[in-house]
Design a protein that fits this description.
The chain has 56 residues and is an all-alpha fold. The protein is built from 3 helices and no strands. Helix 2 crosses helix 3 (36-43). The termini are far apart.
Length: 56
């Protein structure tokens, strides 16, 4: 089964965070000049019930 591109991108972001920030989302967010919540939003799976929709 082929995985959706969004799943692939989420996994690659997790891998990058592991590589450059030792798995620490807050440290990674600081490194790229974004908030930890924003990075968390990128990593959230929109099909899961805990995911919040982006404000329009």
């Amino acid at each position: 089964m082929i995985q959706p591109v969004t799943d692939t991108r989420r996994q690659r972001l997790r891998d990058l965070i592991d590589e450059v920030a030792q798995g620490n989302q807050a440290r990674f967010a600081t490194m790229i000049g974004k908030s930890r919540a924003y990075v968390g939003f990128w990593l959230a799976d929109p099909t899961k019930p805990h995911a919040k929709a982006a404000a329009a």
